[in-house]
Design brief:
With about 425 residues, this protein is an alpha/beta fold. It has two domains: about 200 residues, NAD(P)-binding Rossmann-like Domain (Rossmann fold, 3-Layer(aba) Sandwich); about 210 residues, NAD(P)-binding Rossmann-like Domain (Rossmann fold), CATH 3.40.50. It has 17 helices and 14 strands. An eight-stranded mixed sheet has the order 3-2-1-4-5-6-7-8, sandwiched between helices. Strands 11-10-9-12-13-14 form a six-stranded parallel sheet. Helix 13 links the parallel strand 9 and strand 10. Helix 1 packs across helix 3 and helix 5 runs parallel beside helix 6. The radius of gyration is 23 Å and the shape is globular. Bound molecules: nicotinamide-adenine-dinucleotide. The site of nicotinamide-adenine-dinucleotide has 24 residues, from helix 1 and helix 5.
Length: about 425
């Protein structure tokens, strides 16, 4: 018989984990905190925008394999494995906030107390090295009165999905990392994942936690490196993407993830790089490379504002169209999006901002209710002094000369590689 699962957290990772396992035929109970959100999920509304997730959610609800609840006790009693997928945001000093992790572990322990079956607790959230050993396990033992390994199992199983491709990535991962407290826990989790047709790496808890941070820190570094070279290319008057086409042909390097542009954002890279810096300092090591990767990214986000100024002079009362607000395409997530830094800089300089995004406007309105938001890119372009593409949404690739002809002054900047020079004349890229 297949394992029944409890998934704690109904955000990007929790919902995709729950729906993904249900797609694979497991019975899943997802646990959230707010009744209203859970009711919407049970009606097939994933709340977040994520391609294919809604259809999949509706399908697994119909098949009777997925349900959401706020009742953790019910979920623990009716499952034999729990995945902790709660948020691990940054504190003000950049270190990780483990409050939700600790609370989830304490609550799980409370309800494991009376369970007879061997329950496995899996940490899927991104947590700094030593968290599972020093916070999750003591919290579980304190409230359950049970002993790890003997009475229940623990694994650390980092998630590598990308927003915008989240469910697909969950179902078709490059690899599955299982950090295990003991062999029994790892065997049970490996048995669940063996139908995923992906290489499985088994290791200890601390290594699994660190793999996730090293992975994200490397990707962030790779983009910052591409931006550094891109800024040099801009001075040289060449296209950095032409350069990286050549660099990527070196098999030691790989052509992927050299996306020079207006910097990296999102819910993971910024907070994970900062958490790793903070953890490393706590351990007595100054991670200078990572600190510069983060600083370079801060500067990169607003570089395009400097470029606008160099063309327009003062930005006071200039109308600027911003195309794309989400931190990347195919999501409505604006956490740490480059658009936020650009909006703040433009506002400081007194520019009038007209913004458009296919999905993220409602989220952005919460942060900046005072911008002008439009329903189409064309509407945003009408009568402006300059336009900036910040997110590489597919629909921006279709913009044509007529669309840009709506601008009062034809000054087009792109912070991502979107426009085709064979179709659009006279535009400038941030690093090309
Ligand atoms: P999120 O903020 O979208 O969702 C977290 C959810 O957990 C929220 O809905 C919150 O209400 C819920 N929650 C917190 N405590 C709870 C509790 N005690 N019981 C029930 N629900 C609770 O976060 P996310 O993007 O899904 O990320 C979750 C974790 O996965 C983080 O550690 C993140 O770093 C990691 N991660 C995220 C991604 C990504 O692309 N978003 C990818 C890989 C890993």
């Amino acid at each position: 018989m297949k394992s029944a699962m409890c998934v704690i957290g109904t955000g990007y990772v929790g919902l995709c984990t729950g729906v993904g396992f249900a797609e694979k035929g497991f019975k899943v109970i997802c646990v959230g905190r707010t009744k209203e959100k859970i009711e919407r999920i049970n009606k097939g509304d994933p709340i977040i925008y994520e391609p294919v997730l809604e259809d999949s959610l509706k399908k697994v609800i119909k098949n009777g394999l997925f349900q959401a609840t706020i009742d953790l006790k019910y979920a623990i009693e009716n499952s034999n494995i729990s995945f902790i997928c709660v948020g691990t945001p940054s504190k003000h000093d950049g270190s990780i906030d483990l409050g939700d992790i600790r609370k989830a572990a304490e609550d799980i322990g409370k309800f494991m107390k009376t369970k007879k079956d061997y329950h496995i607790v899996v940490v899927k959230s991104t947590v700094v090295p030593e968290t599972t050993d020093k916070i999750v396990i003591p919290s579980l033992e304190k409230t359950s009165g049970k002993k790890t390994g003997r009475d229940f199992g623990v694994c650390m199983n980092p998630e590598f999905l990308r927003e915008g491709m989240a469910l697909k990535d969950f179902l078709e991962p490059d690899r599955i990392v299982i950090g295990e407290y003991n062999k029994k826990s790892g065997d049970i989790l490996e048995n669940i994942y063996k139908i995923f047709n992906a290489p499985i790496l088994r290791t200890n808890l601390k290594v699994a936690e660190t793999i996730k941070y090293a992975n994200n820190a490397f990707l962030a570094t790779k983009i910052s490196f591409a931006n550094e070279i891109g800024n040099i290319c801009k001075k040289l008057g060449i296209d950095t993407y032409d350069v990286f086409r050549g660099v990527g042909m070196d098999h030691r390097i790989s052509p992927h993830f050299f996306n020079a542009g207006a910097g990296w954002g999102g819910s993971c890279f910024p907070k994970d790089v900062s958490a790793l810096i903070a953890k490393s300092k706590e351990l007595g090591y100054e991670p200078k490379l990572l600190e510069e990767v983060r600083e370079l990214n801060k500067r990169q986000k607003v570089r395009i504002v400097e470029q606008l100024e160099s063309k327009l002079g003062s930005l006071k009362d200039k109308k600027i169209a911003l195309l794309g607000l989400s931190f990347k395409p195919n999501t409505d997530d604006i956490r740490e999006a480059s658009s936020i830094a650009i909006i703040e800089a433009l506002k400081r300089k007194g520019a009038a901002i007209i913004a458009y995004d296919p999905q993220a406007i409602e989220n952005m309105k919460q942060l900046f209710p005072d911008l002008i938001y439009t329903k189409t890119a064309q509407e945003a372009l009408k009568g402006v002094d300059a336009s900036v593409i910040i997110t590489e949404w597919e629909e921006f690739k279709q913009l044509n000369e007529n669309d840009f002809g709506l601008m009062k002054n034809r000054l087009i900047f792109e912070g991502r590689k979107v426009l085709d020079p064979n179709q659009i004349k006279d535009f400038e890229g941030i690093c090309w």
